[in-house]
Design goal:
Blueprint lengths: L11 H23 L9 E11 L9 H8 L4 E3 L5 E5 L3 E2 L4 H21 L4 E3 L21 H13 L5 E6 L3 E6 L11 E7 L4 H17 L6 E2 L2 E2 L5 H8 L16 E2 L10 H10 L16 H7 L3 E2 L1 E7 L5 E7 L8 H19 L11 H14 L4 E3 L5 E3 H19 L4 H17 L3 H11 L4 H14 L9
Parallel strand pairs: 11-12
Antiparallel strand pairs: 1-3, 1-4, 1-5, 1-8, 2-3, 6-7, 8-14, 9-10, 13-14, 15-16
Length: 477
């Protein structure tokens, strides 16, 4: 969700003071790291899941304020729209039982959330883009009642010179439209994975996370439709990038300096370089003075929260005040089931661990331009994409995952201390999905064709399958 602010209007003085504090904290962060301030050497995992509130017609139900009051769970919070919520969980140290514990935590929270939703004649759903959403649902009247969202919308439009936001996505169909606000972002819901890593290795893990984006996303696509149009296998990617389409200082036009992007390159040494890039290239969207102690870098963290790289570094503190760095892997869509999402987490955690610990840095063998091109190919084509890998060869995605990446993910999870039975249970789900070719997106498109293009009937069937808990590769058509 991001950090709330306590006002919606800011003066030039506010902006100057924030910029000054941001510069001071960015320099202080470098000094803090060089002095050994990041002493937490653990690996810790977590997640955020964005979900939809629907009525019984399968349409967005903008009741999240009343819903969250009834739920009364601090780990479930608002999202941009009134028909979305975000589920969180306490972080877990990586080791034996991690994946089972993640699944249990998510299932428990999901079941409770669903029970409360049913009591309000509402249904909770997890899917990357809701196929039944209508253009009129994505309006400012449906923006959640948080000042942060009001400010972000106003600031994005101001920095665009009030130019409308234009969407142009071409797949099997071609969608073009224009909007006066950022609410199209609310159509993109995700399953975001967090991995805290030892600071000394954070640069390698960040680069490995970028490299892993393409195969991870290709195996997990679940957003092929928007407003009845068949677009990319993971339409969330171009939609999110275009819905908050904003450059850097002086409207820098290069695609790498956008608010939502794959980034400008690998880091040379550590993700600290990205916080310095934030200062240099990105105007402040939320110039809210922070009362928190400068030693906790509050201005830096707030500014970073309004720059949505597909892999984003985060600075955090545990209950004792110990600082850490973690990586937020943002490419995965919500759904189709809890088991599918934990299988995706297994693939990411295992693969990134192996790639980051290779004797020769993985990023030395895959040019950044290829990693970025891989990512967009995976978003467009899913498992039908072709990807360039570390040996410079081009592979079919399914071949690459089955023959190379799944064995590497298995080894990474074992190196993390997970037992073989746990590794095989979750990676087995990912493997079966890739072998079958039936991702969430593939199922949606095939089922839609079977029911004559009726998105409401398809969505009803999707929810029935989701409630069963069976992974998507087992869903019938």
């Amino acid at each position: 969700m991001g950090q709330e602010v306590d006002r919606t209007h800011f003066s030039e003085t506010d902006s100057r003071q924030f910029a000054s504090r941001l510069a001071e904290e960015t320099a202080a962060l470098r000094s803090f790291a060089q002095a050994g301030g990041f002493t937490d050497a653990r690996y810790v995992a977590g997640f955020e899941l964005e979900a939809w509130l629907l009525d019984h017609a399968g349409l967005p139900h903008p009741v999240n304020e009343a819903y969250l009051r009834a739920l009364n769970d601090p780990l479930v919070v608002p999202e941009l729209s009134r028909f979305n919520v975000e589920l969180n969980a306490p972080p877990l140290e990586v080791g034996a039982g991690l994946l089972a514990a993640l699944e249990e935590s998510l299932l428990s929270t999901w079941d409770h959330c669903q029970q409360v939703a049913h009591g309000m004649d509402t249904v909770l759903a997890m899917i990357g883009i809701l196929p039944t959403i209508r253009d009129q649902d994505l309006c400012l009247a449906n923006m959640s009642a948080m000042k942060r969202f009001d400010v972000l919308n106003a600031q994005v439009l101001q920095q665009r010179g009030s130019a409308p936001i234009r969407i142009d996505i071409e797949g099997a169909d071609h969608l073009q439209l224009s909007r006066p606000d950022v609410m199209l972002e609310a159509a993109t819901t995700s399953f975001q994975l967090h991995l805290q890593v030892p600071f000394a290795q954070a640069g390698r893990y960040y680069n490995a996370s970028l490299i892993s984006c393409a195969p991870l996303l290709a195996a997990a696509v679940n957003s092929p439709l928007l407003f009845g149009q068949r677009l990319w296998q993971e339409t969330r990617v171009p939609l999110f990038e275009q819905a908050v389409e904003l450059g850097g200082y002086q409207g820098l036009a290069e695609a790498s300096v956008r608010r939502v992007s794959f980034g400008r390159g690998y880091v040379a040494n550590s993700p600290l370089e990205l916080f310095e890039e934030n200062l240099e290239h990105y105007p402040v969207l939320l110039p809210m003075p922070q009362a928190e102690a400068p030693a906790r870098f509050p201005h830096l963290r707030l500014h970073n929260g309004a720059i949505w790289r597909w892999v984003r570094p985060l600075i955090g503190f545990d209950a004792t005040g110990l600082a850490h760095m973690r990586l937020e892997q943002r490419v995965l869509p919500s759904g189709p089931t809890v088991l599918d999402m934990v299988a995706n987490a297994a693939l990411y955690f295992g693969l990134v661990h192996t790639l980051a610990r290779k004797p020769r840095a993985a990023e030395a063998d895959l040019p950044f331009g290829d990693a970025r091109a891989n990512f967009y190919a995976a978003a467009r084509h899913g498992l039908q994409a072709e990807l360039v890998w570390l040996d410079g060869r081009r592979y079919s995605t399914r071949e690459l995952i089955l023959e190379t990446l799944l064995p590497q993910a298995r080894q990474g999870l074992r190196d993390f201390g997970l037992p073989d039975a746990e590794v095989e249970h979750y990676l087995g789900v990912a493997e079966a999905r890739v072998r079958s070719g039936q991702t969430g997106s593939a199922w949606q498109l095939q089922r839609l064709a079977k029911v004559g293009g009726d998105v409401h009937r398809m969505m009803d069937d999707y929810l029935v399958n989701q409630r069963s808990g069976a992974p998507v590769h087992e869903w019938g058509l």
